[in-house]
Amino acid sequence: MTIELMISNALLREPVKKEKRVYLTRTRWNRVYDDYGEDMIEPLFRKAGYTIYSPECYTVAQQIAIMQGADEMVSTDCSSAHNAIFMRPNSKMVLLRKGLYINYYSVMISQVCKLQTIVLDCSMSILNRNGQFAYAGPFFIYPSMNLCNFLGIDRSGEYSVDYYDED
Predict the structure, then answer these.
(1) Rounded mean pLDDT of 53-66?
(2) What is the per-residue pLDDT for 14?
(3) What is the average per-residue pLDDT within 60-66?
(4) Under DSSP, is residue 121 helix (H, G, I), strand (E, B) or coil?
(5) Which of 11, 64, 84, 112 is the Cys-Cys partner for 93 at CB 3.0 to 4.6 Å?
């Protein structure tokens, strides 16, 4: 009921956004950055037709309006992904796994909100193999074969410069 109240109050202030496929990025987050490689992944989603949002640049009401309009939301599996709690049931949440752990908040949000969830392993976080400090980072992500298959990118040997163009 609390989430439903937040959504209804937010939508009184902000109209639902029309972008159906959104990517929530952390590349513009203004703090000491402990995630590396997202700058390689973000352009791939842009080229695939996703609208890129930096959640910290928007009010809570604006973020809710974005999530309410989205049929599909992509994010690294972190606090940005938890915005999926404001998505409509049966929407798709795509989590880019950045570490060697399961984020149980994302699992709970997916189940409670009845989301279709896809988890793509993009992790190259080799420094935390024992899992003892898995949440601490640093996190290294890259355009893995899983990610390229999801986006329909042919990765048969070499990266094409075209995949990284912003145009």
Answers:
(1) 94
(2) 93
(3) 95
(4) strand
(5) 84
